[in-house]
């Protein structure tokens, strides 16, 4: 397999009592199932970076993230799979998490920046010592953001549309997905070009600068954002964990508590508040991220 051939994510109906009560139909696009290691939306976000690195003959790829980062995990796994070197610049001081162990086992060069060092990532000159240390390597912005990441995510729309007939739908009303940097949402908005609305459930507080990418890339229209972070990124609470548990038991679809669980709980709140008219058909994007669950569940 080539890194340009993104695996097809399955689309299937999602039945939950609160959806049935509101007569809202949901199909879920399972990016969590595309690969056992290269999980979720991160492969789509990496696709163009991998292509650029390949075309420019870069010896490796380098990026940044935290000690549970789904992005670094996907990058390390893709590097191992497709045969290129990877380096990860991590936030904070050395920690032994399941994700970090995987990064090392997948051959990633891991460097710990501390907290101050990590905060400097947007400063001019940040990359310079790393470019000296890893000459010619392709640098990927934190989280795989930016235009290249968004363009890769546009392919998600094509994957869903190709499967509508199989679930007996001729069309859909809108998308629902978890938002971190907003890159995946921007990709959907770009690919939809106004054909269908995109609803983003914010897994990070609204003032974290998330919508910037979205505004720039998506032109500020064609999407709506909903608060879903429940007090902060990576904060969890009993109601959320119980909701995830009940959803999993009901549907068999695994969720994690940072993004997909919060997105689905925010959907329930909006459905119960009557945001969607009876007969609305939504595609919920399962963005993956299940590897990160080992850190806290
Ligand atoms: C990274 C991630 C997101 C957020 O994606 P963005 O493109 O940064 O908005 C959502 N869900 C999961 C599971 C993720 O790992």
From TrEMBL:
PANTHER family: 1-AMINOCYCLOPROPANE-1-CARBOXYLATE DEAMINASE-RELATED. This is Pyridoxal-phosphate dependent enzyme. Its cofactor is pyridoxal 5'-phosphate. Keywords: Pyridoxal phosphate. Residues 20-288 form the Tryptophan synthase beta chain-like PALP domain. It comes from Pseudomonas kermanshahensis. SUPFAM superfamilies: Tryptophan synthase beta subunit-like PLP-dependent enzymes. The keyword Phosphoprotein does not apply. Belongs to the ACC deaminase/D-cysteine desulfhydrase family.
């Amino acid at each position: 397999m080539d890194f340009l051939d993104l695996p097809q994510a399955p689309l299937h109906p999602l039945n939950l009592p609160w959806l049935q009560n509101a007569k809202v139909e949901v199909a879920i696009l399972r990016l969590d199932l595309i690969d056992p290691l290269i999980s979720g939306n991160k492969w789509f976000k990496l696709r163009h970076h991998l292509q650029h690195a390949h075309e420019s003959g870069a010896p490796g790829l380098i990026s940044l993230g935290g000690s549970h980062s789904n992005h670094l995990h996907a990058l390390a796994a893709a590097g191992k799979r497709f045969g290129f070197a990877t380096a990860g610049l991590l936030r904070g001081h050395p920690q032994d998490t399941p994700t970090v162990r995987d990064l090392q086992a997948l051959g990633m060069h891991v460097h710990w920046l501390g907290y101050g060092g990590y905060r400097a990532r947007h400063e001019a000159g940040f990359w310079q010592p790393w470019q000296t240390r890893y000459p010619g390597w392709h640098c990927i912005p934190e989280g795989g953001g930016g235009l290249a990441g968004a363009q890769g995510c546009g392919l998600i729309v094509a994957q869903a549309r190709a499967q509508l007939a199989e679930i007996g739908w001729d069309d859909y009303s809108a998308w629902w997905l978890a938002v971190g940097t907003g890159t995946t949402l921007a990709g959907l908005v770009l690919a939809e070009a106004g054909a269908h609305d995109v609803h983003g459930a914010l897994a990070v507080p609204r003032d974290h600068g998330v919508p910037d990418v979205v505004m720039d890339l998506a032109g500020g229209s064609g999407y709506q954002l909903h608060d879903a972070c429940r007090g902060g990124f990576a904060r969890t609470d009993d109601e959320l964990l119980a909701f995830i548990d009940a959803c999993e038991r009901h549907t068999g679809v695994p969720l994690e508590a940072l993004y997909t669980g919060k997105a689905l709980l925010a959907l329930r709140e909006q459905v119960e508040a009557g945001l969607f008219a009876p007969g609305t058909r939504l595609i919920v994007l399962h963005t993956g991220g299940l590897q990160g669950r080992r850190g806290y569940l």
